[in-house]
Design a protein that fits this description.
Elements lengths: L6 E7 L11 H21 L9 H7 L2 E7 L9 E10 L2 E4 L5 E4 L2 E8 L8 H13 L7 E3 L3 H11 L4 E2 L5 E4 L27 H8 L43 H10 L4 H9 L5 H7 L1
Parallel strand pairs: 6-7
Antiparallel strand pairs: 1-2, 2-3, 3-6, 4-5, 7-9, 8-9
Length: about 290
Amino acid sequence: MWLTWPFCFLTITLREEGVCHLESVDLQQQIMTIIDELGKASAKAQNLSAPITSASRMQSNRHVVYILKDSSARPAGKGAIIGFIKVGYKKLFVLDDREAHNEVEPLCILDFYIHESVQRHGHGRELFQYMLQKERVEPHQLAIDRPSQKLLKFLNKHYNLETTVPQVNNFVIFEGFFAHQHPPARKLPPKRAEGDIKPYSSSDREFLKVAVEPPWPLNRAPRRATPPAHPPPRSSSLGNSPERGPLRPFVPEQELLRSLRLCPPHPTARLLLAADPGGSPAQRRRTR
């Protein structure tokens, strides 16, 4: 059952430049002061060394604060703040039941406080339920940042949230968090590799698939080329290049002549020498 007058809810969102969704500048300043005071009261109730809720934090983190106010007449005539709850979306790495890491962005409970004088009157549940309705989430889809034992008992009593999924960070999620991957707990797409850390581009990958052939004549020795069916006729013209073949080691002319003298003469060589006894091998080679 929803609270009726004199209770009302306020939704406060501060923009990055420090302007909230209120028209009056004076009222904006008052709201920022109230947020700071609520953060101090919450930190004191949780025995924290410093507040985790402040107007300056909200300006830079786009958090939303839901405030429950008692509008009944007070001595000052302005009513009183009963409590608040601060929420916001955060990118988290959480473990599932199989201890697998998941990068998600759930709605997180960042701070929750009800004034000590009005606790155990149902105000906390009404404020929490109002937040769920506005954010359109289910209790098991939430991630709670460092919840106190009082908050854990509250969630167990009103929403049957008891079994938690162990995590390595300060956030607590409950069983059923991964049952329905709604947008509040959606998995983020994998990040693309940055340009400066790519091992190679797609064009490089295509280039690596093709074996680079070494230049001539290194490409002739290890490869066995299949002779063509009809080899082209050799040209005797001086303008045409001869057919390329495997290179042979260069031997000086004197060593070549010396080796020829050491080798026994072939019968054909004897006939040639007998026909031209005065000619040298070098001269015969030039006149052929």
